[in-house]
Design brief:
The chain has 654 residues and is of the alpha/beta class. Among the domains are: 89-197; 325-449, no CATH class; 558-650. Helices cover 36% and strands 26% of the residues. It has 20 helices and 30 strands. Strands 3-2-1-4-9-10 form a six-stranded mixed beta sheet, sandwiched between helices. Strands 11, 12, 13, 18, 24 and 25 form a six-stranded mixed beta sheet that branches. A five-stranded antiparallel beta sheet has the order 28-27-26-30-29, with helices on one face. A hairpin with a 5-residue loop joins strand 19 (316-320) and strand 20. Helix 2 (76-82) packs across helix 5.
Amino acid sequence: MNSGETVKLGLGIDTGGTYTDAVIVDLESNRVIAKAKSPTTYQDLAIGITGALDGVLAQGGFSKEDVSLVGLSTTLATNSILQGRGGEVGLIGIGWRPEKDWDLGCKKSRFIKGGFDSIGRTVEPLDKEELKDAIREVSQGVDAMVVSCIFGVYNSWQESEAADMIREMTVLPVVMGHTLTGELGIKERTVTATLNAKLLPIINDFLASVKSSLMNRGIQARILVFKGDGGLMTIETAMQRPVETILSGPAASLMGGKVLAGLDTCILIDVGGTSTDIAYLDDGFPRINFDGAMVGHWRTRVKALDMWTCGLGGDSAVRMGANGDLTIGPDRVVPLAIAASMRKDLKLAMLADGETTFYVAGKGNLRNLSQSESIVYDYIAREGPRSLFETMDGVKDVVLIKDTLMALMARGNMLCTGLTPTDIMHLNGDFVVGDKEASQIGLQLLAAKMDDTPENLAKRIMERVVTRVGEEVLIKTMADEAGLMASSQAADKMLHAAAGERVFAHMALKASLDRPLIGVGAPAMIVVKPLEDRMDAKVIIPPHFDVGNAVGAVCSLISESITVEVYPRDDKFIVFTQFGSPSEYRRLEEALQSARSTAERYVREKLETSRAEDIKVKIDRIDRKFSDGYGKEMKFISSILVRATATGRPLLEK
């Protein structure tokens, strides 16, 4: 930079499953000035964040005083949900009861009288004594509370009253279903609120680590957090609504890949440590899933990019399957190359036991651990990675050691080690991440189990990873146009073949795509680029592909959206919002005008509060029509959705 030149720099940070990335970007030209990586430290995210920050700040060529914006993206929420991690949640449902097979994600629940009908009228008032009794029961041994009322998005009064009573009786944070989404669907809305509550301690620890690291380095810029729909939100909002960071990492990758590749129409593939994420970009616009993001088996009501997420990444567990075949993922483990630094004699223990699975203490939320869980956790935290049998020998006061370890892993307090594609890439010299000998021992142990040579098995592992990436692209493409394909041995082999793996003796298949594939993420050159020879598709790995998430995190806009519903009832029209009581109008145009002005005012005020400038508001009208008994849409309108989306540039501090 020239002396005296006024510059506006952005610092992008992405805490991924394997690496924490940091970049310095010229916000006028989107040019990457400096970048650095540091291993993500599962036991304490602050260590990895500090390493990446120090690495990028040490490169020089710019002044940290010119950094006027910090953008954060993270796969932390997505990975926590995929791995079943998070705080314990107590749920109070008002006016409804779950179906027998519903998994709402809570530890404890109670369902009480109350609720509203489909036009926001009270069906049954709250029983204050029943509510108090439910709070006393459900609040014990949990980290947060959720209140979800039937048709609460049409009338939020009972949810608000219950939340006020929870705050009077406990010190627990409370999440209300109507504050996160205005969409109907009591199950999905409750799951969204529960996941939000589970994520509160995880995301808040992460954000506190970032703020502390920045402050210690004299960076005073404002901090924004990337959302799953491709926009930014303030750090204060993220602390209250962490569930909106679901798919934040891959959303940032999409926007970063668009910036780095300079393409508006493409398929973006982001290969991370835990997951591979795939999304379409059409003429510069990402596809948005307004029905709600799907993560693992959870259907949420979180607006997010229409992203296909699968449990496949650099740190996916490589194992021998039940049928003796090679399996990769979906669970994530600590690569052996990294785990070796956590215990001096780990390699000797691996050889002595013929084992690659050792348990590692994570930081996590340690409140509400049982006595057995605390004993086992403290032992492994003190001694370092230990196998199941070593833990049994070292902990004499706990009987069900394996069950206790599984419970700790479910809470995110315990991880385990294993052979991963990251280890194989380390052995192949693609990048260096730690102890090469530990990776070699792990490969030898698995090769012996599978009656293969280490060299051949390493080749098979990486070929299978490339195949899996290609398969997931095809699954996403077919699912968008024809729905999910039923799994079978024949269907699986067809996918293997279409992704370029030779599985049929007398037939070859080759998939053809109508747009280029853009690969980002550290392993992209290794596991995405080979698809160009396997499939009929152009593959582009842009410059700085390894920090695409961090680039996207700081080169995007603040955004907010809301949907207001207009519902015809008899000879009137009712307007529903998720933040107030229903209002009635005699004429449709009056109702629509109220919906438009209410929605626009809400999103504009949100962006002004978030200190955005150049605010633009887009209003969309979606007519919902009745369907006949056979699922065919009829001409009569059942309701009208008025959706307002506002975007604005972050107001810079300098």
